[in-house]
Design goal:
alpha/beta; 40% helix; 295 residues; Hydrolase_4
């Protein structure tokens, strides 16, 4: 793994990552991580990235604003993981993907967005006309579950955010809802202790999160998703963090979208029980091979 630092056009620095295959590169995979995560988290480096390297992928990622090893805050700061602007973070993603394309202009480019990272990937396409060959979304944050953000909290949050925007919500992230695999759940919690959010969502972040989702859904419903980008969506049927309704919505309104569902699975498919992850990786690798073969 190669680490680097990238100066965002908005003034802060982002931690960047690159993994190279042993042989000739056949495709570029850019990973856009989820809320509270990072580009080089164990969820990716344990299995997903090694599998992509075996296929001939050159893999890139970065830590979003205030996540992982990126600036501008220390890891103990209360504003860790609270995106300042969804549009700015999507612009950062756009810039980093463009840089990877410049390094490998002849290779197909696949973007994998997980949860919040999926929403940012869609915003980058919407705002900046990001041109890629394939978009792969894992539990995309197109609609938040009412378990995570119940109706009463949404109403109270909007009102309270006007006067106390930095106040944290009473419902912090519950890792019991992330995976049914208790062994891997423990590993997630250990990484959270170092890189995760300090106290959960702020009211301001939560309101802007909901607004960004609504804006993307309007764009999708208007039929504006580019027809030349192939789309594959993966979701667990029992995801209580990001409801699978968002994935069903994308399949309904985007022509040619392929939806893969996993019965009983929770939010993080790469951290699920072995029978689920085995099926997921089989489907995921098939999607990657299809994207490569199209070129």
């Amino acid at each position: 793994m190669e680490n680097g630092r990238y100066k965002s056009e908005f003034g802060y620095e982002l931690e960047t990552y690159k993994w190279k295959p042993v042989g000739e590169a056949k495709f570029v995979l850019y990973i856009s991580h989820g809320y509270g995560g990072r580009g080089a988290e164990l969820s990716y480096t344990r299995e997903l990235i090694p599998k992509m390297l075996d296929l001939g992928g050159i893999v890139y990622s970065h830590d979003h604003y205030a996540h992982g090893k990126s600036g501008p805050f220390e890891r103990t700061h209360r504003d860790r993981c609270q995106l300042k602007s969804f549009d700015e973070s999507a612009r950062d993603l756009f810039a980093r993907i463009e840089a990877s394309k410049e390094e490998h202009p002849q290779l197909p480019v696949i973007v994998m967005g997980t949860s919040l990272g999926g929403l940012l990937s869609l915003i980058a396409i919407k705002n900046d006309n990001l041109k890629i060959d394939c978009l792969v979304l894992l539990a995309p944050a197109v609609e938040v579950s009412k378990t995570t953000a119940p109706s009463w909290l949404r109403v109270v949050g909007r009102i309270a955010s006007c006067c106390c925007p930095s106040l944290k919500t009473p419902k912090d992230r519950d890792n019991n809802l992330v995976t049914r695999n208790k062994i891997l759940q423990k590993a997630i919690e250990e990484e959270d202790a170092v890189y995760g959010p300090n106290g959960g969502y702020s009211l301001d972040f939560g309101v802007r999160f909901l607004d960004a989702q609504e804006d993307v859904r309007r764009w999708i419903k208007a039929g504006l998703f580019p027809k030349n980008i192939s789309l594959a969506i993966f979701t667990g049927t029992d995801d209580q963090v990001i409801t699978p309704k968002g994935s069903y919505f994308l399949e309904k309104y985007i022509d040619g979208a392929r939806l893969y569902t996993y019965e009983g699975a929770y939010h993080s498919l790469v951290n699920e029980l072995p029978d689920t992850t085995e099926k997921f990786y089989k489907d995921f690798i098939n999607v990657i091979n299809l994207a490569i073969d199209k070129q």
